[in-house]
Design goal:
Layout (H helix, E strand, L loop, with lengths): L1 E10 L2 H31 L8 H14 L8 H19 L15 E6 L6 E4 L2 E4 L3 E6 L7 E9 L5 E9 L10 E6 L3 E5 L4 E3 L4 H31 L12 H35 L2 E5 L3 H4 L6 H7 L1 H15 L2 E5 L22 H5 L3 E3 L6 E3 H15 L2
Parallel strand pairs: 8-11, 11-12
Antiparallel strand pairs: 1-5, 1-7, 2-6, 3-4, 4-5, 6-7, 8-9, 9-10, 13-14
Length: 391
């Protein structure tokens, strides 16, 4: 059995939107209250132990007594907030994440509901039943398959509602092809394969660059004007000074910027999904280099290009698809992969060039065996050889 998630956009009516905003607020309130409790508890007693999800759920009962309006929210969403906070603390203790922070209403909102007694149910191709909301219209290219475990409802910065349905279904392994491939991640091409294929990087942002720049300028200008108007209200001691939410033109510009950025992100993700599916169908063993992407992002000259390439996302998608379909992903140390000749195994030591000059070399002749090599394809072949050697 494997867990799979299906993301789809929903279109709630006005009453359902009000209910969603109420649940978002309740889940956010519980998160902030429990986080504050953990912080104050530690301040009062440095030896105090961390309160786990079970303990926070017990405290939730008292919190509902103190704040009766919490009872109007979907109950499992508040328990999920406690569980998510406990997970955030566990990742912090392991050094994987930073310390959990308080949530704000200004950013994207979400909550998670658990499926209990079939309270989450797909009715037909365009309608789904959700707890506390009833029947909601959705639009999606595919329907969730298998047993529904939970659903995450999310409101994006672009004021769009999405649900992600997590299901448990049978593991479907793909037929074995007997093929193996190595891949070299790049900035000119997304992935260079050892068989000679190069997956191009599509610069989706170019299509929306002018419009995005136009709305970003408007957003900045309207934000400045709004802040000046708010400051003037406070200066004049207005009884109810305006807030940023009251400036509709600024909010419109903010939403438009978010929409164009979402379009770019969706197109980039679509390319990664299609390409990774093609890889796992075609090859049984896929070998990639294990790059320190966080460290590479510190190079400000390459940071934008690396972010656009979405290497981390590519590897993570490929990993779970290999797990789903019975294929194997191997990651190897990338050291010297572009400098070693696949034909004779000789390390050319960058042909005596410095690091920046060597990066500009796309083809080179091996000084030992005189073979003409494509830098990226040769690196992919060396990566494949390294990966197979670990088998």
């Amino acid at each position: 059995m494997v867990l799979k998630a299906v993301k789809m956009r929903i279109y709630p009516n006005s009453e359902q939107r009000d209910r969603l905003m109420q649940t978002f607020g309740c889940a956010r309130f519980v998160w902030n209250q429990m986080l504050n409790m953990q912080i104050e508890r530690r301040k009062n007693n440095s030896d105090a132990k961390f309160v786990n999800a079970f303990g926070m759920n017990n405290l939730l009962k008292r919190l509902k007594e103190e704040y009766p309006w919490l009872k109007q929210a979907e109950s499992t969403s508040l328990q999920s907030a406690n569980r998510n906070l406990a997970d955030a603390f566990q990742r912090f203790f392991k050094g994987q994440n930073k310390f959990p922070h308080f949530k704000s209403r200004k950013y994207a909102q979400s909550y998670n509901s658990k499926c209990v007694n079939h309270n989450i149910k797909v009715i037909d191709n365009h309608h789904i039943k959700l707890p506390k909301l009833g029947v909601v219209y959705f639009r999606s290219g595919r329907l969730p398959q298998g047993k529904i475990k939970n659903v995450t409802v999310r409101l994006t910065v672009a004021n769009q509602y999405y649900i992600t349905i997590l299901t448990e279904c049978e593991n479907q392994t793909l037929a074995k092809t007997g093929k193996r491939v190595g891949g070299d991640l790049g900035l000119k091409s997304l992935l260079n394969l050892s068989d000679g294929y190069k997956e191009p990087i599509h610069h989706f942002e170019d299509k929306y660059r002018k419009k995005l720049h136009h709305w970003e300028k408007l957003r900045s200008r309207r934000y400045l004007l709004a802040k000046q108007a708010i400051a003037w209200d406070y200066h004049n001691k207005v009884l109810a000074p305006r807030q940023l939410d009251d400036f509709k033109n600024y909010q419109k510009a903010r939403v438009m910027v978010a929409k164009y950025r979402q379009k770019i992100a969706n197109q980039r993700l679509d390319q990664l999904q299609k390409f990774t599916t093609k890889l796992v169908k075609q090859y049984d063993i896929i070998v990639l280099e294990k790059l320190n992407i966080k460290g590479m992002l510190k190079n400000h000259k390459l940071a934008r290009a690396i972010t656009n390439a979405s290497w981390s996302k590519l590897v993570s998608i490929l990993q779970y698809k290999c797990d789903w379909y019975g294929k194997k992903l191997i990651q190897v140390n990338p050291a010297y992969t572009s400098q070693i000749c696949i034909n004779c195994g000789k390390n050319n030591h960058r042909l005596g060039l410095d690091k920046s000059e060597w990066l500009d070399v796309r083809e080179w002749d091996c000084p030992n065996c005189r073979t003409r090599l494509d830098r990226d394809i040769n690196a992919a072949q060396v990566i494949l050889k390294k990966g197979l050697a670990t088998q």
